[in-house]
User: Fold these one by one.
Assistant:
Number 1:
Amino acid sequence: MKAAYYEKKGPAAKVLVVGDLPEPQAGPGEVRVKVAVSGVNPTDTKLRGGWDGALEMPFPRIVPHQDGAGAIDRVGAGVPPSRVGERVWIFEAQRGRAFGTAAKYVCIPADNAVPLPEGASFETGACLGIAGMTAHRCLFQDGGIQGQTVLVAGGAGAVGQAAIQLAKWGGARVVATVSRAEQEKVAREAGADWVVNRKSGDPGESIRKFAHGGVDRVVEVAFEANLDLDRAVLKANGVISTYSSGPHDSAPRLPFSPVMRQGITVHFILVYVMSREAHQQAARDLNSALEAGRYRPHVARTFKLAETAAAHEAQESGAMVGKLLVRL
């Protein structure tokens, strides 16, 4: 089968290869998916580049990418044969494993292949995993958000767009921050009720103007940089759910007394350590939002498999607004 892979870590153009690999076979409890579209995430590029300083390869050869979508063509022992032919979206394909979705076929645990609702495209399915599940956890870890006001920082990013759409589906009012004009358009199209450019004027005043009395919850992409703003706009007993804080060596200083006096709760969100139940609830709700027509990921660009290195470079550039996909 054709696949993109690397055998050492480093810059995408130097280490990513597209070539032929043996087709994988589904083991017990697994399904094999014929991949139609593979999704690119920051996790994929960071793992390939040795972002955390870990240049040692956990496997001799790695096929990257956690997310994707396609159709099940084979099942392993213990998986109902009726699943063959099922259209699915994939999450965490390469978690603890050597082979992800940047290949014609991938074998994954059956639970990681979620039925794709009728009418949803494979492109949409390939956008759901990391971004959708991260956004869902940020929003719903503490229960429903009906009637709340949610601030989504970085509203044009993949998680930000997902959070806006899921928050609106969940019955919340949403204010989003962006830093460029083209990002404002994307955040509004995602459904944000109010969009604030954090680089102009007084973003805190603008957010408070929209959120009378403050926001209930913040979905935060830059915890260290935005902590003061978040504190300024949060209600007492509000929540910050953060899934990123900038550079890997970020070491935010937490002003204990002010945070304590506001009763702020901080959740640190990492999709890979979510419980099985949290993954399942996220998958159910993402599908429900899809079926209701309330979740429409914005795709910035789709690459060919031979262009996987270029897709990684585009992800790393930070210049693209929306999801990056690789079509098989």
Note: The mean pLDDT is 96.
Number 2:
Amino acid sequence: MNTTKRTFKGASARWLLVLTVVVVSAALLSASTGSGKLVSHNTPGYVSTAKSLGASDPSETIEVSIWLNPHNRSQLDALAQQLYDRSSPNYRHWLTSKDIAHRFMPTAAEAKTVRGFFEAHNLRVVRVGPNNFFVRASGTIGDVEKAFHVQLNNYQVLGNVIRANDRDPYVEGAAGSLVAAVSGLDSGKYEHPMMQRSLPVKSGNVVAAATVSPADIFSNVCFPGTETDVLSNNNDGSLPIGTYHGNILNLQNLASNGCAYTPPMIQTAYNLTGLYSEGYTGSGQTIGIIDWCGSSTIQSDANAFSAQYGLPLLNSANFAITYTPTASACIAADQVEINIDVEWAHAIAPGANINLIVPPSASFQDVDQAEYTAVTTGLANVISGSYGSVESFTPASVLATENSISEIAAASGISTNFSSGDTGDYSVYGIPPTVNAPADSPWATAVGGVSLALNPDNSIAWQAGWGNNQTLLSEEGFVSDPPSEEAFGFVGGAGGGPSNCAFQDVDGNCLAGFPKPAYQKKDVPGKYRQLPDVGWVADPYTGVAILITVPGSVPAQVWQVWGGTSVACPMFSGLWAIANQEAMAGGGSALGLAAEYLYTMPAGTITDVVPVKSKNNVKGTVQDSSGTTAYSANDILGGFSPAKFVSALWDYAWLEETTLVISFGTDCTTGPSYGFITDCTQKSSLHTKKGWDNVTGVGTPIGQAFADSFYGK
């Protein structure tokens, strides 16, 4: 077996990473391959360790794509840097799609060569991408295996069955030298990072508050005070008896919807109303929201939501749905992510156009091609992507493709904004800490999350880096003794930390992350790209309201409460559209990549989110046959003791005599697993601090000051 040295250049910095690549033995290839290319780093890392469930059905039809190498890549990398360098004559002289095609993209002749490769292997070409960047073909798994000299197996991965190639593909003949990556061999896909709070039931129906005034739907106060709860077995005074005192959490119950934030509340809290009074609402900008499948009711839902809160209605002049490449086969009502993204991008930037860009599925192949199409065909000038995948479980070739698309967007004056994830550093899954892709790209803006507490006048009482832990104090009249026995631990929190798996060896093992971009050099630790860049509302316990059609409900449109960085991302994308409007209104140009500016914002434009504590954190005692034992707020969380956090009692309405404690500012994911929840008994890798941190980035924007700072720039 031979070895060779192969050099890779990071797209966001001039540096070299030398990897040792094992070349596939000639015995694995047919005698007829001749000249060709092994497409390295195209195998998911889990293939070497996950349980194989056997070969995929060779008669199944799938689609695969070859992404072609761009031309003059080093020149593109250098020019992209210059476009954000104030000292360069190229500063913000954005490239047009025609410029990019002429200078950097593959030629029609090269695409024809790749087409010939597919056709020679009984694979039918179904699409050639814009500017010849990819060629996509359809065929049976058996024919795909023969064409690329791989075997496709099914693997058990984190409770899912995923198809993947067992080795890196080989492309024979003249097409080989043109190949950057092959997608579609594996069935890996993105997921939406979102978390729900369900609504209570009244008279047998889910509460549907569209017929009452906004003030009657949700409270803006999630932490209304303190209370003392006395809990006993069977609620009859028998031992053990738990007595707890502390903050209370105002969530929905059988009498009230509890707290959730609506557009007027958020607009006031983050000083967006001042922008609107100045005439800055995102007018003239288009937010491209990428969500797969599609919703059959999104426009009617969003318009009922808008009517409720005095927002402009969506119509053919300000709203479009673009299916790419064709109409989806999974269009349905109740597509929650689409409602979150459309309603909350619109709530923040009510004057912006929205283009809902819909790929047919969540596969890496479909979504990446939809994003690339949006970038190169002018569908939007701000891209919002509330989705992601685990970086260390994503093939390095997919990560490189994502990075290339975001780089092309940045060079075109477009910001691609992505959620940082809702599972902390992913060690909840029993894997080494890692981050969310494609938010990991140095050419993308990663949006993290916060918990938000408002005062009655909608001013901000406090913000904490989003991270919740949960302890069950009593369930249906049975008291936990001690409470730490039912410390369920981590239930959700913003993703963050360093990219560490953008470069992988031939077995998919992590070697290095994306390099730290220039905009993070000064104040951000480590040598790799760090996530996130900025934060906004994400905690489902302090979540936002959406209106959505749920088939079978009476009435059909119902209110729900959601959180996750899936909320934070479209919110920030809306504000970035307004910032673009301000820049151009003053005679400047489009701003491009948001992350490039966030680390040098003027004072008073960003709120630094730091650790927060409460003097009324939940503490208490349990009296049993052996006596009375006192438990501190830290004890109740199972011994996890960050320096500062907030905790509150939640009287859970759907089980009688059931009370929990929820903590805030505890983005912990390190510790033994409890199903998909983690017992946080060790130090977390994610925490807020003064300045940039790996939960909230630089902090949350102060709307008017933030956008006004870009006027005329």
Note: Residues 1-33, 198-215, 669-682 have pLDDT under 50 and may be disordered.
Number 3:
Amino acid sequence: MQDYAIYLLDRSGHIVSWNRGAEKLTGYTTAEIVGRHVSVLYPSDAIERRSPERELKMAQESGRLEDEGWRVRKDGSRFWANVVITSLHDESGALRGFSKITRDLTERRYQEETLRQSEERFRVLVDGLKDHAIFMLDTDGRVTSWNSGAQRITGYQAEEIEGRHFGVFYPQAALDKRLPEQELAMAREHGRFENESARLRKDGTTFWANVVMSPLYDQEGVLMGYANVIHDLTDRKRAESLEQAERHASEFLAMLAHELRNPLAPINNALHLLELKAPADATEKWVRDVLHRQTGQITRLIDDLLDVSRITRAAIPLNRRALDACALVRTAAEGSMQWIQARGHELSIELPPNEALTVLGDEARLTQVLHKLLHNAARYTPEGGRVSIAARRENDEVVICVKDNGVGMDAGLLHSAFDLFKQGQQAAQRPQGGLGIGLTLVQRLVRLHGGTVEAHSAGPDRGSEFSVRLPAVNEAPASEAAAPERPGSTPRKVLVIDDNSDAANALRMLLENDGHNVRVAHDGVSGLALAREYRPEYLLLDIGLPRLNGYDIAASVRGDPELRHTTLVAITGYGQVHDRARTAAVGFDHHLTKPVEFSALQELFRAKA
């Protein structure tokens, strides 16, 4: 019995016998321990509480006492002991002493404490997972545990839900189909069940959940219950819905732009043809000017819609270089004079006389920003008003301000001025017009440049001010390369394939007037046949053609050795980045978006001279 310490005590608690197991467990020999009080084996805190005397008294009263607690060895080390104390009596019932049997349970105690700490850490970990509902079910599907994530996601407190069937989280339609019971059965059958479906909160609202359910078995394979982990996917679903809506909107805008650009192309080309002849009278001149202005406005609206779509999808590349902000202001002011003069406004420009204001950015896009702000100022200022644009340096920023004395903005409009499709109050006839996307474009383009834009107004009829802040850089603006001298136009063999006969014929007349030899086809099959017969230097090709589309024609031309020197030019209403990438991939040399500026075609023809 060397694994047990067995010894006897007299009535006062002094040790009177000592076995080998006791020597092994405590380190005391028989000679060292016999005659000493049993309290020598107790920690000091237990002695202070008089635990030895209390245990002996309890054993005397009940005949037997079993307990566990810390004991002390001869070397001062502690061990966890299971102790059985039995009172001993003579024939007359008088107390003679006590027997004690002590067993060392330190290793078991250590394992139990390790397990307890592990369970506590796991409980803290599970309870700290706020984004996941983690809870246990018994074999019947009733909730037996509940973490803080489950409380946050479902709205139930632990005391409200523990003991209730987990079917409470299912919509009525799912309960009618007995889905909770089916899912428990599938978890038992396959060892795990996972799906995504709707669940109910305490307040009756629905959320989209990823659910993982696993059955739990004991060592004998008996089912103990189920572990459930639920992840709330509502935000992800909402984001996916927004992405899908955004994708559909982009596709719609691209299609809308294509359909609007197609009729614009022949109108634009017809206007170019009219410009080749002097107007017959003042009325004809006025008509031409109106048509030019309105087609230009429609083109700008289409471009704005597509720019919003591109920026939303981060699909606008920026050609960044060091730019002179003062030059940007002057260019934007010059390009905005048509709007300023049309409404009889006074425009003032304030620039520092001897200070360099350099920013890093895309010249075309920053000019577009200032154009939008000046256009807005001109449009929302009554005729004969004042508009100003100024630039200055503030610490590490270049600040460009556009100010007017127009209709101003109230607090509500100031707060939402940069929201998409948001406009100030207009009369029913909408004298200012527009789609309400200009300021959205301004804000997003400025953000792409690492800057900010703010709107200020003292209130309705007290004017507005927009401040664009861009990071200043300490390098010299990139110098503009001198424009090369343009050679004269060389007659070219040109083939135009476009199913819009008005667009094709207007372009043909423009090109012929410029000295080129032009053929025209109105569908893909006849166009490809004419290309092989005519062998043009330039093939101006629409994409959306009947019978054979522009991509197929391009592939056929690139595969024909007789047409290897033909320059392929896509002329299409599709102008987004992926559209350009696709035309390049099938072999187009250039991609021009309708309505094409005739000067761009002239430059293209000159470049091959």
Note: The mean pLDDT is 85.
